[in-house]
Write a structure and sequence with these properties.
It contains 10 helices and 7 strands. By secondary structure, it is of the alpha/beta class. The chain has one domain: 3-Layer(aba) Sandwich (Rossmann fold), CATH 3.40.50.720. Helix 2 packs parallel to helix 3, helix 2 packs across helix 10 and helix 6 runs parallel beside helix 7. The termini are far apart. It binds NADP nicotinamide-adenine-dinucleotide phosphate.
């Protein structure tokens, strides 16, 4: 079977995904592998290394040996783990990263000020903002060393929450607004290069996201999606791979993705349940 134009553009690339143990990041790993199964390197990172190893095995079983998968433990909220990650944790032949998917992120709780736990504030900012910025700073020198001012893709996973703040999500919304500002600044700073800075903002997606938000309470998490048809993580992964698979001169800078019954952060049509 001949490869599609998108597969040809992705072939030979090394793709690093943060938060690849679950949800959108995990789906991105599968979608990249399915789209360019003949020649690809996938670096999968997250805190849960055992889960990453399972994902790696599942990808190998599905697409075969054309896709090489390297699971690596990495907590993006810890600057000491991120700084020097490439030279310390990646074997030589894995260091020439072409695409960084900054996906790792989380929300904790629905508390409103002045009752937001300091620990929750810190983990959200350290993961969603500082973690994403530190990862970007760790990978950008690789991109900038390439000809033509530099080349490579950074795909940041933002959120509708970064565009439309909502009650009970002030910290999470603030972190995603920060991602948006950082992303837009970076695109401007790198305008003289071939480095593409892209952001994808999902609406409601059913993943472990709400389970994490409610500290493991599955019943509360399920209630978030009651009467709704949320997006699946595969829906977002298809867009991630699409933007990475465009011709180099095409920058899909900014994308907002809803399920049909969503039209804003809190604007959801729910069927009676
Ligand atoms: N689900 C939604 O409705 C929705 C909507 C808009 C945007 N988003 C964004 O989409 C991204 C992915 O979320 P998801 O919905 O796929 O949720 P998920 O299923 O909970 O996945 C989150 C991933 O992030 C990883 N992660 C969390 N903290 C980390 C850390 N300190 N270091 C490294 N990895 C870390 C988790 O892995 P470990 O636990 O193994 O570290 C997991 O793989 C997030 O940035 C989220 O804000 C989600």
């Amino acid at each position: 079977m001949s490869a599609t134009a998108m597969a040809k553009r992705l072939e030979g690339k090394t793709i690093l995904i943060t938060g690849a143990s679950s949800g959108i990041g995990r789906s991105c790993a599968f979608e990249f592998a399915r789209t360019a199964p003949r020649d690809l390197r996938l670096i999968l990172t997250a805190r849960r290394i055992d889960t990453l190893k399972e994902v790696a095995e599942q990808i190998r079983a599905e697409v075969g040996e054309g896709v090489k998968v390297l699971p690596v433990q990495l907590d993006v909220s810890d600057p000491k783990q991120v700084k020097g990650f490439v030279s310390r944790c990646l074997p030589e032949e894995w260091r020439d990263v072409d695409v960084l998917v900054n996906n790792a992120g989380l929300v904790k709780g629905v508390a409103c000020a002045p009752d937001i736990a300091e620990e929750d504030i810190n983990i959200m900012f350290q993961t969603n903002v500082t973690g994403l910025i530190n990862m970007t700073q760790e990978i950008l020198p690789i991109f900038k060393a390439r000809p033509d001012g530099g080349a490579g893709d950074i795909i940041n996973i933002g959120s509708i929450a970064g565009r439309e703040p909502y009650a009970g999500g002030s910290i999470y919304c603030a972190t995603k607004a920060a991602v948006r500002s950082f992303t837009d600044s970076l695109r401007k700073e790198l305008v003289a290069t071939r480095i593409r800075i892209m952001e994808i903002d999902p609406g409601q997606v059913e993943t472990e996201f709400s389970v994490v938000r409610f500290y493991g309470d599955k019943a509360k998490a399920d209630a978030v999606y009651a009467g709704c048809d949320p997006l699946t993580p595969d829906d977002i992964a298809e867009v991630v791979v699409f933007v990475a698979g465009r011709r180099q001169n095409v920058v899909v800078a900014d994308t907002l993705i809803y399920p049909s019954h969503q039209a804003g952060a809190g604007v959801l049509h729910r069927r009676p349940t």
